[in-house]
Structures are given as C-alpha cells and as structure tokens.
Amino acid sequence: MTFTGSSPGVPTRAPRGSSGPGGIRSLAVPLGLGGGLLAAVAVLAVRSPHESGSYGFCPILLLTGYACPGCGGLRSVHELTQLDLVGAASYNVLVVLAVPLAVAGWGLWIARAAGWLRRPARLPAALPWVALVLLVGFGALRNLPALRPVLTPWLGT
Q1: Which 8-state DSSP code applies to residue 106?
Q2: DSSP-derived 3-state class of residue 108
Q3: What's the chain's Rg over C-alpha atoms?
Q4: Rounded to 5 degrees, what are φ and ψ at 3?
Q5: CA distances from 68 to 3, 47, 77, 114 (A)
C-alpha cells in the first residue's frame, strides 16, 4: 500500500491507478510484455518455422556452421504450441526447460506489481552468472561431434 501525506504524520491512501504497488501503471509493463509474448507465440502456433524462409535464419549458424544456444528456439516453441514436448526438446531442450521458469518469473512479477506479495521476491545475486554459464555451456556442448546428434539432431552429424 502506498501512502502520501500532505502533512507530516497524516497518511492518506494513494489514488488508484498510481504507479505504486497495486496501481494500474505498475501492472502495465508486465501485462504488456506478457501480451506481446502471447501474440508472438500465437503467430508461431499458426505459422510453422519448419517452412523454408518463413522466419529468416540464424546469423551465427549461417556464418559459422555452429548452432548457438538459441538455435531451434522458434521450432521448439512451435512444437510446444502443438503440445509435442519430445519434438520441442529435440529442437532446443534449453527452451523447453526455460519456458516454465519464465512463466513463473512473470507470475511473480505480476504478483509483486499488483501488491499481492508483502516482501519483494529476491533472486540470488549469482543468477545472471549461472544463466550465462548455462548458455555458453549448452552452446558448446551442442556443437561437440559426439553430442551433436542428441542436442542438435536437425543439423546432422
């Protein structure tokens, strides 16, 4: 709850729609981002990235021949919209693991912005470093010749 006071010691409630927790403005960014992502997923559900040239290309794959950590992500999300978990994991297992975590994080963001959480959810300070190590490690592992058929089967051996 946000209080503003016209004189010291006399709290008054902030007007609804304010930018404090629970206000409409505090929900605008997370709801707008969620709506935009939902629209993008809807496009992926109806327009398949499996068709040649439908969404462009990965510049890293095109220039180097190596799959980046995000390669196969669009195909993976498309397969998730078709409820094919195995197919989605075959394109990019990292996306399949990240989607539930991203949805949970978005839910916490909404709850915090709405003022439903009394205390802010605190993420570990090392989280960005762990995520970076996972991304770089996955990118390296999926390009090893022995693991390429498992982690990047659509590229072949």
Answers
A1: H
A2: helix
A3: 21
A4: -115, 140
A5: 48, 23, 16, 37
Burial annotation 8-47 (CB, 10 A radius, 16+ → b, else e)? eeeeeebeeeeebbbbeebbeebbeebeeeeeeeeebeee
Q: CA 140, 141, 143 angle in degrees (round to 5)? A: 70
What DSSP string runs through 9-52?
A: TEEEEPPTT-SSTTSHHHHHHHHHHHHHHHHHHHHHHHS-TTST
Q: What is the phi/psi pair of residue 149, to 5°?
A: -65, -25
pLDDT of residue 17: 47
Across-strand partners of 5? 11
CA 48 – CA 44 distance, rounded (Å): 6
Place of tokens 């794959």: 61
10-residue mean pLDDT profile of the chain (157 residues): values are 52 50 78 92 88 80 90 92 93 94 91 82 87 95 91 71
* Helix or strand (DSSP H, E) at 6: strand 3-7
Distance of alpha carbon 129 from the chain centroid: 17
Q: What's the full length of the chain, in residues?
A: 157
